[in-house]
Amino acid sequence: MPDLIHDAMKWIDHNRYLAIAFVIGSGIVIAMFLSGCVPTATYDGQEHDAITLAAEGDKIAARHASEIAEYEAAAGVIGKKAERNKQINNVIGSLGTAVLSGTLTPQAGLAAGLQVITLLTAGGLVIDNKKKDKVIKIKS
């Protein structure tokens, strides 16, 4: 019986940049689908989103003025994360707009994701081939 894991690792070692490009492309596609996550921040040992953090802020303002600085720091973290999510959504927003407007179907969105993976995989293949050409020239 062939050793599939050994063969796979040998192939990955031989085509290192192709494999790396495929993993990066897959990560980009996964990030595209996860970019709609709600930003949270840790305050008082618990995770809060903007709404629950605002409710905590109201409680704190009524009870303890000294905790307001800690609250504002946590609100700043949420603001920074929300701004980063906005930037990510602006980059891939045209795809989302097209999906919501009905001009782009989920199948076309999947096809776009596969095109990203294919493009990066092809780039990795080119790098692998250039590396192999150098090895062939050295041995010749």
In short:
The protein is mainly α and 140 residues long. It is 80% helix and 4% strand. The mean pLDDT is 79.
Report what the structure shows:
With 140 residues, the chain is mainly alpha-helical. It has one domain (4-139). The chain is 80% helix and 4% strand. The protein has helices at residues 4-14, 16-34, 50-63, 68-101, 106-139, and strands at 41-43, 46-48. A two-stranded antiparallel ribbon has the order 1-2. A hairpin with a 2-residue loop joins strand 1 and strand 2. The radius of gyration is 24 Å and the shape is elongated. It starts with a helix and ends with a helix.
Shape call? elongated
End-to-end Cα distance, whole Å, is 36 Å
* Cα radius of gyration in angstroms: 24 Å
Low-confidence stretches: none
Question: What's the helix and strand layout?
Answer:
Layout: H1 4-14, H2 16-34, E1 41-43, E2 46-48, H3 50-63, H4 68-101, H5 106-139
Antiparallel strand pairs: 1-2
Descriptive tags:
mainly alpha; two-stranded antiparallel sheet; 2 strands
